[in-house]
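Minutes, project check-in

Agenda point 3 was the complex the collaborators sent over. CS summarized: two entities, 222 residues total, and the question is how they sit relative to each other. Sequences were read into the notes so everyone works from the same version.
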Amino acid sequence: QVQLVESGGGLVKPGGSLRLSCAASGFTFSDYYMSWIRQAPGKGLEWVSHISSSGNTIHYADSVKGRFTISRDNAKNSLYLQMNSLRAEDTAVYYCARDGPFDPWGQGTLVTVSS
Amino acid sequence: DIQMTQSPSSLSASVGDRVTITCRASQSISSYLNWYQQKPGKAPKLLISAASSLHSGVPSRFSGSGSGTDFTLTISSLQPEDFATYYCQQRYSTPRTFGQGTNVEIK
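CS then shared the predicted structure for the full assembly.
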């Protein structure tokens, strides 16, 4: 079945870096835009970034622009989010989702930015 | 950026009640509006896309309507498994934006 599985979350100090991965299966990954969406503890949903099927078109939320980089490897059916210069306010569960509309979603991976 | 405003932010209802949640966009988004359900500790799930198209496997008691700036999600007869938080989301433009959520609680 269609499935997305995130990995790579964890505890990191402010200013540090982390790379999230999202493994896709059950559909033709290379046909779809993909997105990262996050949810801070007890808060609502915030779209972070998306990437076109070919990787040629990328957009970011202003809150992460210049610090986060989205990428994909269609040969490996994988989506990535490189997060640099992390701040306490980046603490959240990060979900990957197939775009347009967002379905399905992965189970999420928790990123905690704290000293 | 397009702002999405949901109302109410929370509501209490009983099993069998008819529940309506409203979502308003800060500018016209045609029918590029999706609804999601999220239960505690779980990822959101798509309920309705394109304002009124019921996603596969979603019970028919859920329905969506609206276009332009005003949208509604209706649950015709609330069931125990429907107690959750509901989010609207526009995909008319980037950045994609969500409403703040509506928490449906047991009365």
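Noted in discussion: Chain B touches chain A through 20 residues (CB under 8 Å).
Follow-up: revisit at the next meeting once the mutant set is ready.
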